[in-house]
Amino acid sequence: MMKKIVFLGCGSMGEAILAGMLAAGVSPLSVVVTVRRPERAHELATRHGVTALASNEESEANMEAVAGASVVILGVKPVGIMDLCREIADALESNAVVISVAAAVSLAQLEGALRPGQPVVRSMPNTPLKVGRGVVALSAGTSADEHHLAAAHEIFDGSGVVLDIPEEQQNAVSAISGSGPAYAFYLAEAMAAAAEDFGISPQIALILARETVAGAGIMLTEPGANPTELRRAVTSPNGTTEQAIASFDRDDLPGIVRTGARAAAARAAAITEELSAK
């Protein structure tokens, strides 16, 4: 019998996961998606061939969707996760694995809002999933066994690299790979601004920065690629690049990145506490 997979909420990240999963060979006939607006439901059904329900039209859409499901992906915002879990708790199959893609929502919080013993997996995907180059970190809950974790891997394998980590590292992963794409975009912004300082037009400056960062990223995806070795290969002794790197080191760019990552991880921990207080 075909395994039923359900997406509760399907924004841009959820759709990226869905598209990667379908591209990897999962049948759209096995997938049910719930969203709020009927227009969005129609869009997803037309684009991907899945069954899509709109909760604004069907108040029991979420309950109907999870009935008989083997895998349920929670794709709503963190503030709505616990209410959604309580809504669907009694309709879930006892062995269905519930996968959360919400940042900062702990396994304990998810498990506390579901029935005792419900298998839960917490995930931290990042936005490059949209182009099949994502990183996803998974942490299994107290009732999730190797089969549930394998099912979670199958959901994300078509969208990028999937890693298993202990939950206590989730906030750190969020600070590095979850927020990390924004750091790369920020670097590209700064490079474009520097180009403009040299009198290069904004249009050409953007192309220079965008294609350089994108090209360097592709080089990092080559088998065995190491950022330190790649940097050294471009940095000739007493050359121009060496001068730029030396300037970055004097300003402690690595320390600045570490400080930013710690701030991101601290904010994730604070959000977890805020959700616990609700």
TrEMBL record:
Catalytic activity: L-proline + NADP(+) = (S)-1-pyrroline-5-carboxylate + NADPH + 2 H(+); L-proline + NAD(+) = (S)-1-pyrroline-5-carboxylate + NADH + 2 H(+)
A family per Pfam: F420_oxidored
Pathway: Amino-acid biosynthesis; L-proline biosynthesis; L-proline from L-glutamate 5-semialdehyde: step 1/1
Domain of life: Bacteria
A single Gene Ontology CC term: cytoplasm
Keywords noted in UniProt: Amino-acid biosynthesis, Cytoplasm, NADP, Oxidoreductase, Proline biosynthesis
EC numbers: 1.5.1.2
Positions of the Pyrroline-5-carboxylate reductase catalytic N-terminal domain: 4-103
Residue positions binding NADPH: N62
Compartment list: Cytoplasm
Any Gene Ontology biological process: L-proline biosynthetic process
Alphabetical list of SUPFAM superfamilies matching this protein: 6-phosphogluconate dehydrogenase C-terminal domain-like, NAD(P)-binding Rossmann-fold domains
GO molecular function, one term: pyrroline-5-carboxylate reductase activity
Binding site for NADP(+): L8, G9, C10, G11, S12, M13
Location of the Pyrroline-5-carboxylate reductase dimerisation domain: 167-269
InterPro entries registered for this protein in UniProt: 6-PGluconate_DH-like_C_sf, NAD(P)-bd_dom_sf, P5C_Rdtase_cat_N, P5CR-like_CS, P5CR_dimer, Pyrroline-COOH_reductase
Protein name, entry field: Pyrroline-5-carboxylate reductase
Gene name for this UniProt entry: proC
